[in-house]
Structure formats: C-alpha cells, structure tokens
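A.,

Following up on our hallway conversation. Structure tokens first:
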C-alpha cells in the first residue's frame, strides 16, 4: 500500500501571482487540480494526504470531494520539511510506502511514480533526478570562479519515495534533534538518519511551476494536451 503526501502549503512568493501558485487557475482548473488528476491515475497510489496552505483549507476540503483518493488534509508547516512531517502524521501506521510530491508539478510522468514505488521493494529512499544540460558554474560574487564537470551532478526533482519506516525514522530523528527546520531538504535528513538515497533518472519534462513565466509555459502545454485529446 502506498500513500502520497502532496505538498501544497507554500505561499508562492517568487511567482508573484497574488496567491499561492498551486491554487492559481490556469484555463479551467487550478494547478493543484491538474496535479491531482495526474497522480490519481497512478494505480499504485492508494491514498493521498493533502498538505494545504492554511488560508486555503476550504478549497482543500472541496478538492477532497472531487478526488476520492484524498483521505486526509492537514496544514502546511513553516518549511517544506515541517510540511512533510505534518503530512506524515496523517499517514496510517500500517502503510508500507510513502511518496512525497509537489502540488506545483502537474506534468510529472506517471511512470516515475510507478517506478519509484517498485524500487521501494528493495530501497529505503529513492528520489527523482534530471541531467544538467547547461554549464555548472561556481560563482565568486559576480564573477565566474570555475566551471564544474556537469556529468558528476544532477538536478534534484520530485517525487521522492520512502519506505514508511525510513521516513518515520528520518522525521522523528530530525525532530528530536531540532534539525527539522534547519536542514533544507528531506533527503538530507534521510542521509543524516543513516539512509542511502538512491536516484531514478527522469530524463524527461518535469516542470515545477515556480515563476510567473512557468505559468505561461504550463498554459501552453495544457492547451496543447487538451487539443490532442
């Protein structure tokens, strides 16, 4: 059994849309609706815990009526890691696998979720990565200091999958040591808790809507997909 924790607790400051970008409407639907439609079609995902921005709890409750896989709704934390922790507390203790995903990634290929869930039969933690296609430049102030060999690096993406017991230990260890909001990413917390983090190369389009320009890219893609269907 697999539960997906969908992170929708952010405020979307960088997009400057006047509201959190996950609740911003593109064409006929909110970004989060496109994401929920996508992940709900993954047969291996049994339940969804929606972690919402506190100002949009009424909207989250309406989404629960439209998407039957949403089992629980909770409020996001001050940081991404705290939001994951809040969501995890709503996951049933008999669960075996947990996927963490961003509500602002509506185009993630469904095979990524399926593959990660399968890999969790053998791995404790698996995260999605994409290759770096441009130059990897290290800065010294406003100047270029050096260019690194990009073949040794990848771009971190989402989703990330955990065995239930691995995420439980990761979050409880971080919370007890006061690190939950001090370390910026959950996979770093997992490594700090002693887990190896394996990667699944995506080599695919996995847009995270972050800036206003990303909204326009998403709009074009949504229109194209609708025309194709």
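Then the amino acids I'd put at each of the 229 positions:
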């Amino acid at each position: 059994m697999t539960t997906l924790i969908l992170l929708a607790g952010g405020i979307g400051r960088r997009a400057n849309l006047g509201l959190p970008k996950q609740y911003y409407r593109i064409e006929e639907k909110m970004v989060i609706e496109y994401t929920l439609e996508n992940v709900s079609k993954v047969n291996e995902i049994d339940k969804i815990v929606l972690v919402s921005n506190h100002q949009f709890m009424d909207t989250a409750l309406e989404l629960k009526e439209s998407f039957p896989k949403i089992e629980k709704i909770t409020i996001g934390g001050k940081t991404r890691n705290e939001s994951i922790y809040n969501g995890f507390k709503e996951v049933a203790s008999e669960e075996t696998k947990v996927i963490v995903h961003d509500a602002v990634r509506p185009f993630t290929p469904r095979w990524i979720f399926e593959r990660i869930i399968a890999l969790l039969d053998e791995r404790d933690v698996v995260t999605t990565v994409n290759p770096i296609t441009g130059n990897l430049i290290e800065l010294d102030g406003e100047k270029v200091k050096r260019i690194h060999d990009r073949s040794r690096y990848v771009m971190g993406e989402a989703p990330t999958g955990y065995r239930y017991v691995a995420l439980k230990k990761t979050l409880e260890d971080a919370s007890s040591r006061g690190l939950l909001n001090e370390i910026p990413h959950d996979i770093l917390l997992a490594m700090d808790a002693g887990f190896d983090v394996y990667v699944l190369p995506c080599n695919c389009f996995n847009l995270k809507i972050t800036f206003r320009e990303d909204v326009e890219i998403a709009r074009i893609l949504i229109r194209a997909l609708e025309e194709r269907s």
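The domain at 2-228 is CATH 3.90.550.10 (Spore Coat Polysaccharide Biosynthesis Protein SpsA; Chain A). Curious whether your intuition agrees with the design.

B.
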